[in-house]
Amino acid sequence: MNHKSKIQKTITEKLRKDLGSLRTYWPSTYFSISQLLDRDFLLIPLNSGDFHEVDRNQLIKIKEYIPEHLWDLIKLPLTFRYEKDNDGRSWYVIIGNRWQKRAVEILIYGKLSSEGLEKIDVQEFKKLVKNFSSLIFVSISTSLS
Prior knowledge:
The protein is of the alpha+beta class. The chain has one domain (3-140). Helices cover 40% and strands 21% of the residues. It has helices at 3-22, 33-37, 56-65, 98-109, 122-132; strands at 31-32, 43-45, 51-53, 75-76, 78-84, 90-95, 119-121, 136-140. The strands form 3 sheets. A 4-stranded mixed beta sheet has the order 7-6-5-8.
């Protein structure tokens, strides 16, 4: 193995380790909007054993956007994976089931389409974060060989 390969292997191993440790700060439990509205303490458990606090005002705001008949179906927090291609274009992939994707669509566009959403662009993501930062988690996409 040459010197360049050793350095690349060392860097790749370090990145894998660091990215793995970031997963400990990912939600371990998701709650429906209804469940969160019924709770006194708006804490979401993380894989690390710590808790993330949801802003009650943001939860109240989200319930104004999402129709009540969907409150039991949509789980929070909303989760995304940031991706970027070699040409510099970037976007956020919506992680979760169809109801999480539907929630994002309602929050961004105020309505549902027949196709649904799989990903959103950076400007749409900024709009979500501006209004619902405590209800959003983001990971990054990596391609380590």
